[in-house]
Amino acid sequence: MASAMTKAALTPPLRRALLQSRSFQTSSRNLIPSAFGASAAAGGVPSYFQKPSLPANTIIRFVPQQTAWIVERMGKFNRILDPGLAVLVPFIDRIAYVKSLKENAIEIPSQSAITADNVTLDLDGVLYTRVFDAYKASYGVEDAEYAISQLAQTTMRSEIGQLSLDHVLKERAALNTNITAAINEAAQAWGVTCLRYEIRDIHAPDGVVEAMHRQVTAERSKRAEILDSEGQRQSAINIAEGKKQSVILASEALKAEQINRASGEAEAIFMKAKATAAGIEAVAKSIAEGEEACTRCRQPVRGGEVRGCLSASLAKESTARRGAGHVATLVA
C-alpha cells in the first residue's frame, strides 16, 4: 500500500519533467541553428556576438541528431553528450556549449584587396565549414565562427596580393583552393575544418572595367582581322591552285597533241619509205629481167625468134621506165 502511494506521489513530478524536457527540446532546436552556437531569429542573419540560450538542466534531456552538447560539472568539463537520451545531475551539471556537427555556410562580407599589379578589388564569398571536434570548438576559441570569418578575410587578402588582376579573374578555382588550405592549417586547433571556399563576386574599379572592355573590344577586332586575312589568304591559295591545275592540264593536252602529231608524221614517213622501197625493188626486178632477156638475145637463133626477143626487150624497158617514174612520184 505504501509503495503504491509512493508511486502515485512520484509520478506527477516525473511526468512534468518529461513534458518540460520535450517542450524545451523543441524550443532549443529553434534557438540553435548555427554550427557554432550562435542563435538567430527565423529568417534573420546570425550575429557573432549574440549569445544563445542554452538548454536547461531538467535531469532528462534528448540530444538531437548531429548535435554535440558539452556538459560541465561544477564549472569543469565533464563529458560530451551524444544524440539520444541523456541524464543530468541537477544543480551540479550544466550544459555549457551546444555544437552542431552539420555543414555550415558562413557568409564572408565584402572587403578590399590589392592585387600584385596594384589594382584594388572588392570581393565577397561563402565559406563552408564543419565542426569535427566539439571540445576544441568550445574551449579552443571564444567564437569559432567569427574567428573563421576573420581568418578567411585576411587569407583572401594575402592570396590576392600575390596574383595579378588577370590571374585573379582566370584562376578562381586555384585561388579558392589556396584559401581553403590556408584556413584549414590554422583552424585545426579550433576543431573546425573548412570544406571549401567560393568567391562570389569580384568588383573592380570603373576605370579598370572600362579598360578591360576596351581590351576585349580590341582583342575581338584583332581576331576578326586575323580571320578575314586568313580567309583572303585561303582564297588566293585556292585561286592559284586552280590556275596551276589549269596550266598543268593545258600543257598535258598540248603534249598529247604533239605526241599524236609526231606519231602520225612518223607513220606517214614510214609508209613513204616502205612505198619507196617497194618501188625500188620493182625497178631492180625489172632491170634484172631485162638483162636476162638481153643475154638470151645474144645467142644464135632463128630470124623469127630474134624479132620476138627484141620486141620483148623493148616492152620490158618500157615497163621499167614506168616503174621508175612511179617510184619518183611516191618519193616526191
Structural commentary:
There is one protein chain. With 332 residues, the protein is of the alpha+beta class. Helix content is 59%, strand content 19%. Helix 3 packs across helix 5 (172-187) and helix 6 runs antiparallel to helix 7 (303-331). A hairpin with a 2-residue loop joins strand 2 (67-73) and strand 3. The strands form 3 sheets. A 3-stranded antiparallel β-sheet has the order 3-2-5. Strands 6-7-8 form a 3-stranded antiparallel β-sheet. A two-stranded antiparallel sheet has the order 1-4. It folds into 3 domains: 18-100, no CATH class; 104-204, Band 7 domain (Tetrahydropterin Synthase, Chain A); 214-331, no CATH class. It starts with a helix and ends with a helix. This is Band 7 domain-containing protein. One of its GO terms (biological process) is mitochondrion organization.
Main sheet summary:
3 strands, antiparallel
Question: What structural class do the secondary elements suggest?
Answer: alpha+beta
Instruction: Give the proportion of residues in helices.
Output: 55-70%
Neighbour order of strands in the largest sheet: 3-2-5
Q: Give the N-terminus to C-terminus distance in angstroms.
A: 165 Å
Beta fraction:
15-25%
- Based on CA inertia axes, which overall geometry fits? rod-shaped
Number of helices: 7
As residue ranges, the low-confidence spans are: 1-11, 17-50, 300-311
Radius of gyration: 60 Å
The averaged pLDDT comes out at 75
Count every beta strand, where a strand is a DSSP E run of 2 or more residues. Answer: 8
Q: State the order of secondary-structure elements, H for helix, E for strand.
A: HEEEEEEEHHHHEHH
- What's the number of structural domains? 3
Organism: Verticillium alfalfae (strain VaMs.102 / ATCC MYA-4576 / FGSC 10136)
Family: Belongs to the band 7/mec-2 family.
Protein name: Band 7 domain-containing protein
InterPro entries: Band7/mec-2_domain, Band_7, Band_7/SPFH_dom_sf, Stomatin_HflK_fam
